[in-house]
Amino acid sequence: MGTLIDETTKVRPAAVELDDLDTLEAESMFIIREVVAEFEHPVMLFSGGKDSVLMLQLARKAFAPAPVPFPIMHVDTGHNFREVIEFRDKVVAEYGLRLEVASVQELIDQGIIKVDHELESRNRHQTRALLDAIKDGGFDAVFGGGRRDEDKARAKERILSFRDKFGQWDPKNQRPELWHLYNGRHRKGEHIRVFPISDWTELDVWRYLAREQIELPPIYFAHEREVVDNEGLLMAVNEYFPLPEGAESKMEMVRYRTVGDATLTGAVPSQATTYELVIEETSVSRITERGATRGDDRFSEAAMEDRKREGYF
Predict the structure, then answer these.
(1) Domains in the chain, ordered, with CATH?
(2) Could you give the 3-state DSSP secondary structure of residue 160?
(3) What is the dihedral of CA 204, 208, 209, 212, to 10 degrees?
(4) 87-110: per-residue pLDDT in tens?
């Protein structure tokens, strides 16, 4: 006769408790692995900004100890902060990455993109450079670091977002993603934009980078810089943004919440020289980083959606 076993005495393995950052990390790495398994030729956008640094770190973790199995791409306006380009090149060399550069300047030199003057903002021109690079490289999936908390247009995006053969996006015609099931079907010439950190917030990004002790370009932390107030934005005075006639500059402790074209990306006053201090500042901020520091986004709610329809990220 068998012995009865008291179910309450069975030893069960202890449940592994994941905090919110562990959960976000696991979900993002799952998305990255799924895309690599399903698509033939993915590429990851990398500007050297904090979101692309996070995304690259997640990709490295997802495939460790193997190398990252796809190239990275920088859409280079030619008006970049020097510190960010130096950081980009350092990361490429350190991790042995393959870097693709989609250069706006090259398209200007070829006469494909027209500008009125050399210091004109090139932010909108990134779309043409990006779409040409996707087509020329034959990329069928493009990872981007967009997050839903950044602005209303990005909040409308799916994780896997379909782009037609012209690289355009239709926000009213998107695929359902119930139960984390992603539809990557596309025809030749079409591609999918992939946003693995869509559900992260700016604060999540900073907390994770701090936990993992990931290096960032130094301009993300408070430093002294010559700036001028330009319609409410603290603009760095440099070769891309010369001091306007009649304006007065000043040396101030600032940091950048986002990095983009130096002709339109402003800094914020700050004393946050460490991850911990940046996290404190971010936790009490009520304005998104793009709304606070990007001159092209802060005055028009439709600006980002219009550009995304055309093919921008």
Answers:
(1) 20-200+304-310 (3.40.50.620), 204-298 (no CATH)
(2) strand
(3) 180
(4) 999 999 999 999 999 999 999 999
Give the pLDDT confidence of 143-192 residue by residue, as tens digits. 999 998 887 887 888 999 999 999 888 888 888 888 888 888 999 999 99
H-run or E-run covering 309: helix 303-310
98/80 Cα distance (integer angstroms): 20
Task: Report whether the peptide linkage leading into residue 65 is cis, meaning its omega lies within 30 degrees of zero.
Answer: yes
CA distance 313 to 311: 7
- Tell me what pLDDT residue 14 has: 55
For tokens 């001159």, name the residue. Answer: 295
d(CA 204, CA 16): 21
**Are 99 and 43 spatial neighbours (Cβ–Cβ below 8 Å)?**
no
Size of the chain, expressed as the number of residues it contains:
313
**What are the backbone dihedrals phi and psi of residue 75, each rounded to the nearest 5 degrees, phi first?**
-85, 105
Q: Edge-to-edge strands of the sheet including 268-269?
A: 233-236, 223-230, 250-255, 268-269
SS3 assignment for 75-131: EECCCCCHHHHHHHHHHHHHHCCCEEEEEHHHHHHCCCCCCCCCCCCCCCCHHHHHH
Collapse the DSSP code of 45 into the 3-class scheme (helix H, G, I; strand E, B; otherwise coil) and give the result. Answer: strand
- 185: tokens are 């079907």
